[in-house]
Design brief:
Layout (H helix, E strand, L loop, with lengths): L19 H15 L18 H12 L11 H9 L10 H15 L7 H9 L7 H28 L7 H22 L21 H17 L18 H16 L5 H10 L9 H8 L6 H29 L5 H26 L32
């Protein structure tokens, strides 16, 4: 949630609904203000784990200032009473603690202007049991992990849809790596436990981007592969799920099946295979399919790489949306967020592997162990490799 520098929005009278984690922040800060010697009991959180600028400022001040010596007679109620009725306090009673609270207020005001002693009061009053500070800290750490994961997933979805990037796939995969690092960090901070994976409904798959241009490239690939089926063996990294239209996905599967069987491949045999496997769907006229299958145009591997390029970005976008949905469900524990996120990222890892296979330089033949025979004629020429897709 966005941070606010208005202290009154952090108080008990705040009008906007607050999540349970917000009250854990209040309770933790109240415990530290009333019993600052409990600070060493808190691990795993820093000021950025808090949802408001005021809470972050108070926690940073408590961390930075040496705690006063604990007073044996001081308890939570006494600290509240001393802060509320400072003029009525007997000379010397809790004086060191009161002075320390004043230092906390001064230091916190440097980061959150407008903070008052009354606000510190409200925090102390909001803590039910100071000895529960470790539990409050775990709640805050869990909610901070949720927000970090949500932001990383958002960056992935935005990058996958950013058409201004010169190299969108590498940029998107870099964001996926950053997201994976966040998941690993959460897994290290929160030990696994028994329980079910997230039950959050999965968002529907978005249509692959590209529109008519994508459909045209897919038809050209199908036509070229039908004319030169031997090239299909070079494109095992492309699957039907990478196509934008179900008809095209079905035709590609039919082509790969025919090639695998070493069966004859031409527009008619592909059309028949598609009919046998129900791949024609609602296509009203088979002539339409025959028409575009008979018009090969450019390099099939180049077109296939273009199709896979779009599929990688669409998959990354969907994975990001899935993880965002997990983080938006407050019922998911940190461990469930880890399990759900890793399962979603596995889908991206699979297509990433295919992308690397498609874009890696082809492995050449092994080096000769004996020198080649001397040639008497002119050396043969080697055609330059076709240009690859800019990544």
């Amino acid at each position: 949630m966005p941070r606010t520098t208005h202290p009154h929005k952090d108080g008990p009278g705040a009008s906007a609904p607050s999540p349970p984690g917000y009250f854990a922040e209040q309770a933790l800060l109240g415990a530290l203000l009333s019993e600052p010697h409990r600070l060493p009991d808190i691990t795993g959180i820093e000021p950025d784990a808090f949802t408001t600028a005021v809470h972050a400022a108070v926690f940073a001040a408590v961390q930075a200032l040496p705690a006063p010596a604990p007073v044996e007679t001081a308890d939570h109620a006494a600290a509240v009473a001393a802060l509320r009725a400072r003029p009525a306090t007997r000379p010397g009673e809790h004086a060191e603690h009161i002075a320390w609270l004043g230092k906390v207020l001064t230091a916190a005001r440097e980061r959150a202007r407008g903070l008052t002693a009354a606000h510190l009061h409200a925090l102390i009053s909001a803590c039910p049991t100071p000895r529960h500070t470790p539990a409050y800290a775990r709640i805050i750490a869990a909610e901070h992990a949720r927000r970090r994961l949500h932001k990383a997933a958002q960056r992935l979805t935005h990058t996958a849809r950013d058409t201004s990037l010169p190299h969108p796939v590498p940029s998107t995969l870099a964001e996926a790596d950053a997201l994976s690092s966040v998941v690993d960090g959460i897994a290290a901070a929160f030990p696994p436990h028994s329980g079910s994976p997230p039950r959050t409904p999965t968002p529907p798959h978005d249509a692959l981007p590209g529109g008519e241009q994508a459909a045209q490239e897919e038809r050209l690939l199908l036509a070229t592969a039908t004319a030169r089926p031997a090239e299909i063996e070079q494109m095992r990294w492309l699957t039907g799920e990478d196509f934008t239209l179900p008809l095209h996905a079905g035709l590609w599967q039919c082509l790969t099946t025919l090639v695998h069987r070493r069966a004859p491949v031409d527009p008619v045999t592909v059309l028949w295979q598609a009919q046998q496997h129900g791949a024609l769907g609602n296509t009203p006229d088979a002539r339409e399919v025959l028409g575009f299958l008979a018009k090969p145009d450019v390099s099939a591997p180049y077109l296939a790489e273009r199709i896979l390029h779009r599929s990688v970005l669409a998959t990354a976008h969907h994975v990001g949306r899935r993880i965002e949905a997990f983080t938006d469900d407050p019922a998911n524990s940190p461990y469930q967020l880890v399990v759900g996120s890793r399962r979603a990222l596995a889908e991206l890892t699979a297509i990433r592997t295919r992308w690397q296979q498609a874009t890696s330089p082809a492995t050449g033949p092994p080096p000769r162990t004996t020198p080649p025979a001397r040639r008497t004629g002119p050396a043969p020429t080697t055609a330059a490799p076709a240009g690859r897709l800019t990544r």
